[in-house]
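Re: your question about DUF1266 domain-containing protein

S., sorry for the slow reply, the queue was backed up all week. Below is exactly what I fed in.
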Amino acid sequence: MVDPLNAWWAQQLVLCDWAFAPDPLTLDAEVAAARLEGLGVVDRGELGWRLLEAFGGGGEADPARLLSALELAALGGAAGWLGEPRARAWAQRLAEEIGSRYHGLEAWLDALCRARSAVGWVQGDDGFSEACEALAALEHQGEGVTWEMMREWLADSRPEQALWPDDPVDRVWRLRAAFSPVLEPRAAPLDWQGLEGWLTEAWQVQGRDELIRVLLWLASQGDRQAWDLDATRLLSAAAEERRAWWEGLAPRDQSAGRVLLTLVESGEPLEWAAWDWLRLIDLAWAGLCMGWLDDEEARHFALHGADMAMHRYSDWVALARAYQRGRSLFEARDLRGAFDVDWALLLQSPVSPWRTPLSEIVDEAQLEASRRAMRDWRRDPRHWVLALAAVREPELALRQGVAPMLPEARRQDARRYLAETLDLHADEGPEALSRYWLPAQAHHLNQLAADGAHGALPIAATPFGRPGRQDLAARDALGQASRHAATIHMAEKYAFHLQMAMDSGLFDAARLSELTAALHGSLSRFYTSPRRLLAAWAQWEALLPEPDQPSLVAEIRWHQDDPGSVFHWLDWSSGEWQEPGPRPSLSHFTAMALVGPLNSPAWSLPQPESERECASIREWVDGHYALHTAGELADFVDYLLEAGDRQEYQINYAPYTLNRERLASEIATLESGECSEEERNHLLRLIRVRDGEDGCNELDMTAWDLAQAVDLAIAGRQLGWLTEADFLAFLGRAHALAARQYGGWEEYARGLLAGFSFFMGETPEREAFLSGFRQALVSWLSAAPPMAGAWASLDFPGARPRHWAPMHVDTLPGDGRQLH
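Result:
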């Protein structure tokens, strides 16, 4: 029985110089492939375009192209580029198009002749006239399928297989038509000629791991982030600021900058993410063609691109316009005027793979599977570190997936950063990173925010002065963050340091991996979703920007809003909570705060330091206290807590306050002759007693001994001279002594200043030291600026609680007022 479609198809191919055969698909495969190449169809992607172009972009179809498409469908089927059902589907659709436009063989042949004449061919010069006569003879002599028979068969026949892959699992590849239509879902090298060279030249991709890193980068950041951030800044900038921005660009970037300014000033949507997401789908197909991705992997990446595109764009037109804007920026030339021409085929052709609405391309079950796959790629806790660190250094987003081998130059840069910025060296081991995990700092900020939200921050006036207006305003603004746990404020810096440690190659990889897992566990405990974490980060970054560093608020908010941001695709399931560093109890933090302005705030429990650090600590301990061994230090701390300098005052100076004449005589005697250094210090202290300087005669100076004792205990722990148990025991004794001697931080601060002032040795900088110390006491008492010290956020040892409990769990253990 004659197949009407095959017979009619074969008849038309006579016009293409084919010998008549009952089945057009029986041509030898090698001959068919060679003929395709001769026609300029070098791969299956080009074949897809040629078939699509035959139907035009919404206008009148060219009959010559329709005939050429019939030949291409036959050649594609014969060469094995198209499966037989797909080749027949195209032949049937072409037959329908031709039959609907031309109501008989004569009209069809006449249209072909006119089309050929229009491009300069003379009838008969290439045998075309003879082919037309042969075709007419076949039909008129009853040896073939007549025009009427074919039209009747088409009217009665059921549709062949779809023109484009239409199985639910394959439909996502229709989005790849922005670059080249996918004819068959089983990718092969014949889909893309020169693909390997293109990947190397255009993407610097030469293997599976590199490809996956680029795919994850396109999904999570791509080119769009930098454009989005610039556009946001330009929108709020005045004309002069916009011009200055453009002039400040490197010469090679000014053309693209001009395009961006044009888009900003045009008033149309500043949206171009489709540029990244469609390229993601294209590269996923490339990976499938190369055999670097299996079917499921490639499909999940493509579905991820489709997922985000469907999330943002209502239809194909919006998607294409966004892509055109992105392409304009990338190519540094405004291509919006070419939109109708560039996209006519896909948006208007009756056979476009985009005839199916964008919202119906894939179903929810497929999308959910791709979402799981994307999270699986980022399940390694290392991606938490990358995500946080990449906000400061966006290039790190290209490290997703399998970690790359880093060039030596990058390792050296990381080592310099660790040494010069953090004073962190290989001999310290990864444990030294714990010094940058500061849970007490987060507690301090959370407490200030809670108090600020309830109007319970300390009054600005202190016995030592008032803080500056800007510092006070910064403190008062913290109440805006009362809903956001503050751990992210220090954790993101810790993550960056951890990333540099990993890049340096100096530390044990397994131990660093444990720290990344601990960071993951801590943050997923305090923040239940990426939006909560990013909202907290943006809030704290706005309130406490890094000095001399550009604000990261815009970058953080970009990650909040972009559906592809890696933060939305991390593993948020928290396992066992193990922090990257020790978390002090509230009482231990309070005891360490007794040091006050005598040293920098201690935001975490001290740990034994490297020999390099210990050398400088020993030098300080020796120079200030003449202590050389662990026993000497422990004995001296014990002495400070039991008696200390306050006892010396009571024995050697307090009696003078009862006999002013004896005091004056002693001073006169010492002033009348030569004094040794020891006698000179004694004289100066007698003068301070006479003048009652800084309240030395009225105030309890135990605070001075407490501050020294805790400071030395911290040094002893860092030197490894004190075990953790011994150190915590000293903290407990200091806490108890402070509770017995003072009623609050202000009273403690008076005693501390009195002791600092009284026992200071002779120095020309005395007044400068005292002025700086008083200002520091102002900051510690008022929390202005907020990071100066912790007194304002802590209840004094033994004092009645006065602080509001934060609304979240990001606090130190031992706080009996927590609401959770």
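The chain has a mean pLDDT of 92. Residues 84-101 form the longest helix (18 residues).

Happy to talk it through on Thursday.
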